[in-house]
Write a structure and sequence with these properties.
Elements: H1 4-7, H2 25-31, H3 37-47, H4 59-73, H5 76-83, E1 86-87, E2 90-91, H6 93-105, H7 108-113, H8 118-132, E3 148-157, H9 162-172, E4 176-185, E5 192-201, H10 208-221, E6 226-230, E7 238-244, H11 249-259, E8 265-272, H12 281-288, E9 293-295, H13 305-312, E10 317-321, H14 329-335, E11 339-343, H15 355-362, E12 366-373, E13 383-390, H16 397-420, E14 424-427, E15 431-434
Parallel strand pairs: 7-8, 7-10, 8-9, 10-11
Antiparallel strand pairs: 1-2, 3-5, 3-6, 4-5, 11-12, 12-13, 14-15
Helix pairs in contact: 3-4, 4-5, 5-6, 6-8, 11-16
Protein name: ACT domain-containing protein
Keywords: Hydrolase, One-carbon metabolism, Signal
Domain ACT: 151-236
Length: 436
């Protein structure tokens, strides 16, 4: 059996599959922290951590665990992988773990159970597969490594050899370029080069720290303003906090997208200046998933900005999901990071309050929603995404609002995804490049 010290550093994270490598239940409880107690109990029985004999967990115990998983967690396919991977009285470790990993990969419920981060799910698959290949049995069945996906964003003064250097650096490590987007800005006289490259690589051939050093050297060679590399399967998800008011449609859409694994970010907190009762859908959702939520009522004389800054100081960016308060320049300077807002109108038209009514009274034939970065000037930050829908003389003010709300949800979700996937670059005075 594998020893604790050999595996814990390698399989670090909150994934229940990893519990099979631990002898003591007390130690493993921390590793299984992403599961509810019922699921964790089922896993203890299913994987029989504390009763391992020389050849593996007993089949009967595995079957009991599988049934418990079905009853308590609805993870039937995972339970079957645990309970049914036996051959006679011996559990083949690598088959069991690989089977569990594949079951988890296709199970949407696991995404909702496993903590406040999509990265823990990715670590589960990588860890389970890596663990399965540490078994001395059937090692010939194990692939040498699993390809990962990386993103590199680059910005510098335009000059000869940039693309060649980036390509050669990737090829030298036996990695493969999947896509390259390039833009050169001539607005301010001196041309500026921007690029976003996606590539696949073998982490055994190109470790994360070596990759960082390779791209840092390219940045120094070309005196880059930006040379950013990200590996989504390894790097932690960006942390965001959401500010909302009384309207729920954008907030609810973000929460459900996060729950389904479509939002590549960690929600650190939800802050609202309007009260929501304990039995409302939003509060029940946040409590169920362990997402902190704060009610900070505001007045004209007290926007509670200092308290908000304290609550969100450890986040990577903020999202205003129809937060109907204007953030002061003092708040923007104190926070000092990007803030993404959704405006329920097609900017630069219809700024400020009541854009539905402004558009309706103007007799427009297209209505829209705009996601943008927040700046000192109200509704004047760099645009990220815009979406439109057609309206006619038959539409009422109410139907304007209904159509717009659907656009707002989609537009904000896209902007957040672009931001987390390193697709947005701010440039010139008030513009954005969005590599899509």
């Amino acid at each position: 059996m594998l020893r604790n010290a050999q595996t814990l550093a390698f399989l670090e994270g909150a994934v229940a599959v990893w519990c099979i490598t631990v002898v003591q239940q007390e130690e493993a409880s921390g590793i299984c922290r992403c599961f509810s107690s019922g699921i964790a109990d089922a896993l203890w029985i299913g994987l029989d951590v504390c009763e391992v004999d020389g050849s593996g967990p007993r089949r009967s115990t595995g079957e009991k665990g599988g049934n418990l998983l079905k009853d308590r967690g609805g993870l039937g396919n995972f339970g079957e992988a645990v309970g049914g991977a036996s051959e006679g009285s011996t559990m083949r470790w690598n088959r069991m773990v690989r089977g569990c990993a594949e079951a988890l990969r296709g199970n949407a419920r696991f995404a909702r159970l496993c903590g406040n981060s999509s990265s823990s799910r990715r670590d589960a698959f990588a860890g389970a597969r890596a663990f399965s290949c540490r078994s001395p049995k059937d090692s010939e069945d194990c692939p040498k490594s699993r390809l990962m996906h990386g993103v590199h964003v680059f910005q510098c003064t335009d000059q000869l050899g940039i693309v060649a250097s980036i390509s050669q650096s990737i090829a030298r490590r036996e990695a493969n370029i999947l896509s390259v987007d390039i833009y050169i800005d001539f607005d301010n006289g001196l041309p500026v080069f921007y690029s976003r490259s996606e590539f696949s690589f073998d982490p055994l051939q190109w470790p994360r720290d070596v990759m960082e050093e390779d791209f840092r050297e390219i940045g120094e060679r070309f005196r880059a303003d930006k040379s950013l590399v990200r590996v989504p399967e390894v790097d932690p998800d960006l942390k965001m906090a959401v500010l909302a008011s009384w309207q729920d449609h954008c907030l609810v859409d973000l929460l459900h997208s996060w729950q389904d694994g479509a939002l590549p970010a960690q929600i650190s907190a939800v802050i609202s200046n309007h009260s929501r009762g304990p039995n409302t859908h939003v509060v029940r959702f946040l409590d169920r998933h362990g997402i902190p939520h704060h009610y900070l009522p505001t007045t004209k004389s007290n926007k509670r900005e200092q308290e908000i800054v304290e609550l969100v100081k450890d986040t990577d960016f903020l999202v205003l999901a129809r937060y109907m308060q204007v953030l002061s320049p003092t708040f923007l300077r104190s926070y000092g990071k990007d803030i993404i807002n959704i405006h329920h109108g097609l900017l630069p038209s219809f700024k400020g309050a009541n854009p539905y009514r402004q558009a309706y009274q103007a007799g427009v034939k297209l209505i829209g929603a705009t996601s943008h970065f927040v700046t000192d000037e109200l509704d004047d930050g760099p645009l990220i995404e815009q979406m439109v829908d057609r309206v006619s003389h038959r539409d009422t003010l109410s139907s304007f609002a209904m159509k717009s709300e659907n656009l707002e949800k989609q537009c904000l979700a896209k902007a957040i995804r672009y931001y987390c996937e390193q697709r947005i670059v701010r440039y010139s005075c008030n513009k954005t490049i969005v590599f899509i």
